[in-house]
Design a protein that fits this description.
five-stranded mixed sheet; 14 strands
């Protein structure tokens, strides 16, 4: 009887051993597959000006040479940025503990390395080879993203924050619409606006995508430059002008960047004081510190500032 039972026990034991081994292999394979899927889910491939690159889906240490405002809007704080960005009038309070990486376009490679980034974002492709050896580097050429919608939509997709971008843009659009309605109720539709900078020995007129107030005035508030020079300004985006032709480039309203000078200074200037906009108190003077930037956060703040002036001035 014992001998017969042994005949059955041995095969059963072998079968059980085979089943346990198979289960172990399945668990191992399942675990490996899960780990592989997780690893793949941690990165994604994106198309850039330098071709397809693999980036983290949730980067934790971003060094950004450009587009810092859009990152902050999406609740993404970089670990490093150029000194110029850290001085941004509209962002500097939120960037106090961000490390400086040097000048825009000429970052310190050693400093960038020390920050151990897992993603680098820049608008300048000249340093791509050096930067891409440190971390995946996304180059969005300067001027390619032309307004808040293009910029926020791009980075919402890049950083998997599409909904956050849509929510912010919805609020942005509403605030811009409210400001435009206030201005349109007071300022004639055909009134022309000029964006000028006093550079000391010369002057510059700007278009709708070069700072100094062009974005809030021409894009957000929908205003137009003087018809005579509109095509030139909008095509070139900036034009150097002399005092002799100043009258050709100045419209009914002038938004003027000038450090250390006031409206009264320009009223007392023989040429400036002769311009209709200056005579009619349609001249707004602000420093470069506030007019130079044209990221989404800056544009919204500038719209609010200029709207207040346009709707409360005498």
């Amino acid at each position: 009887m014992l001998r017969q039972n042994r005949k059955f026990i041995a095969p059963l034991f072998l079968l059980l051993l085979l089943l346990l081994t198979a289960c172990g292999e399945n668990e191992k394979n399942t675990s490996s597959t899960t780990e592989q899927d997780t690893k793949e889910a941690e990165t994604k491939t994106v198309q850039t000006t330098n071709g397809e690159i693999v980036i983290p889906t949730n980067p934790q240490r971003i060094v950004a040479e450009e587009y810092i405002a859009s990152l902050l809007v999406l609740d993404v704080k970089p670990v490093g940025a150029p000194g110029l960005a850290l001085e941004n009038y509209y962002l500097k309070d939120g960037l106090k503990d961000v490390e400086e990486i040097g000048d825009y376009g000429k970052p310190s490679i050693e400093k960038v390395i020390s920050l151990k980034p897992d993603l680098i974002i820049t608008g300048n492709g000249e340093n791509y080879d050096a930067l891409s050896k440190i971390a995946p580097t996304v180059v969005i050429p300067y001027g390619e993203l032309k307004n808040a919608h293009e910029e926020l939509t791009y980075f919402g997709e890049l950083l998997d924050k599409e909904q956050e971008a849509k929510d912010w843009l919805a609020q942005y659009d509403q605030k811009i619409a409210n400001a435009k309605a206030l201005v349109d109720a007071i300022i004639p539709e055909d009134a022309s606006f000029s964006i000028i900078e006093d550079a000391g020995k010369s002057y510059y007129a700007y278009g709708d995508n070069f700072g100094r107030g062009g974005q809030p005035v021409y894009q957000s508030l929908g205003r137009k430059p003087p018809a005579k020079v509109a095509d030139e300004i909008m095509e070139k985006q900036w034009v150097e002008i002399s005092k002799e032709v100043l009258a050709d480039y100045t419209g009914d309203y002038i938004i003027l960047t000038a450090d250390g000078r006031t409206v009264e200074d320009f009223k007392n200037d023989p040429i400036w004081g002769s311009l209709p906009a200056v005579k009619n108190d349609h001249l707004y003077v602000w420093p470069e510190e506030r007019s130079w930037y044209y990221d989404p956060t800056a544009v919204l703040a500038q719209v609010e500032e200029l709207t207040k002036w346009l709707t409360t001035k005498k």
